[in-house]
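> forwarded from #structure-qc
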């Protein structure tokens, strides 16, 4: 699943005309990078949740044939259901007992095929070093388990994870964020994680989007 329903308030005015996952980086919409990476990892079906400017995103995605995958749309109407509520709403479309979820406003060279298909815990998260705009991180990691500080320093959640549908059994329908649900599960020892030290960027503001655009353009093969 790709989370793509948010309004993108921090991205305004860019998101006044386009949904955030359609903003271009090095000439390609952000969501194109994610769909390409998922297809490369062997995924054949992707659920995309939509809300803000949904018709533009749905039209761009089509049936997914250009990426060699099937795209299913989870339409949340006019108001997005946040990260947790969006995943819960999409469970019937996801179907499987476990599934991958990627945030729609990130870029990374993380090899998605390294995600587990059947996590031993209720969730398995990819964590990265804290970027300058998020110095305090999100979750602490001890071995392969997410724990509460002060056991160790916090790392930043990359917006890449694998979840079991049981994670959402106790959640009420409606809009809610995923992070509190993960922290509750982590307190029970039911969240695993891995620390990825490769390239990862959160393109959540116009400035960070422009920085990522410049970085990817500069790293194109043959560019001097």
């Amino acid at each position: 699943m790709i989370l793509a329903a948010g309004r993108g308030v921090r991205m305004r005015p860019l998101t006044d005309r386009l949904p955030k996952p359609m903003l271009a980086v090095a000439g390609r919409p952000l969501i194109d990078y994610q769909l390409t990476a998922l297809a490369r990892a062997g995924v054949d079906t992707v659920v995309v949740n939509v809300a803000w400017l949904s018709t533009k995103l749905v039209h761009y995605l089509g049936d997914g044939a250009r990426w060699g995958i099937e795209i299913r749309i989870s339409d949340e109407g006019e108001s997005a259901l946040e990260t947790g509520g969006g995943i819960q709403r999409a469970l019937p479309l996801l179907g499987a007992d476990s599934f991958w979820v990627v945030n729609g406003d990130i870029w990374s060279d993380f090899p998605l095929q390294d995600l587990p298909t059947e996590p031993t815990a209720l969730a398995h998260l990819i964590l990265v070093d804290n970027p300058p705009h998020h110095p305090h991180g999100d979750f602490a990691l001890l071995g392969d388990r997410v724990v509460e500080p002060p056991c160790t320093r916090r790392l930043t959640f990359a917006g890449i994870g694998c979840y079991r549908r049981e994670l959402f059994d106790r959640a009420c329908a409606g809009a809610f964020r995923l992070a509190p649900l993960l922290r509750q599960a982590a307190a029970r020892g039911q969240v695993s994680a891995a620390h990825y030290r490769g390239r990862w960027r959160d393109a959540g503001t116009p400035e960070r989007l422009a920085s990522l655009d410049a970085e990817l353009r500069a790293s194109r093969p043959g560019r001097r």
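QC bot note: The first strand starts at residue 2 and ends at 3. The radius of gyration is 17 Å.
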